[in-house]
Structure formats: C-alpha cells, structure tokens
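Record minuted for completeness.

…
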Amino acid sequence: MKILILHGPNLNLLGTREPEVYGLLTLEALNKKLIAEGQKMGIEITCQQSNHEGTLIDALHSAREWAYGVVFNPAGYTHTSVALRDAVASIEIPVVEVHISNIYAREEFRHKSLVSAVCAGTISGFGWQSYLLGMRALLEGNQQV
C-alpha cells in the first residue's frame, strides 16, 4: 500500500514556528518518523510539503494515479480553499484530514474546515501522531474492503 503524506503551508517551519502550539519536531524529523512507522505497518510513505495551493492540488491529482490514499494537513488552507476542497473531492481516493493542534480549541475562524466534508475523516489535536492515526485509519479501511 502506498500513501501520500501531504503537508500544507508553513509546515516547513515545524520545530521553530509557534512551538507551544506545534511542538519542537521539525518537518524532516516528522517525515522520518512517519516513513519508519509506515514500514512497520507495511505502508510505503511518500511525503510532500508546499506553501503553494496549486502545488498541493497537483500533488492530490497525481496521488490518484499511484496512492491508495492521502493523509493531508491543509494547514491554513483548511479554512479558506474551495480549490483544495474540490481537488480532494475529485480524486476519488480516501483522504484523511489531519491537524497537529486541536483546531476547535483555537481561534473561532479555525473551527470551520472547507475540506472536511469531502474527506474520509478528520483527526485533530494529537500532535505529530495525528498523522500516524490518519495512516492507521487508511490501513484499517483498506483491510475492511
């Protein structure tokens, strides 16, 4: 099984940006953890990050050709991007929306996700392990088929 881990804008600054919210783990260290955990689960993990909406859309479109599913942290685009919502809806593979922080315990504008309605599920507030839970959800869903 192949899964795309897709990180949205500003996640390249993990470890230095608002560590009280996002922790001290860098994006590189996070990706290494996810790849190692994926190997234990028998999942091939590919990680991508972009600060650009169109690049994220291109990654989602590409994933439909090779991935079983996507674990996607749209970050700030969660609350603003109809284009990303439409891209998730169009690829017809399961996408799990994840967030490091609990978006519902933060500012009110973060409580509304435009992509949630077209995702298989949403995981929020478990730090880097939100991604791991998303991977497990895709794996378990695949085993039920």
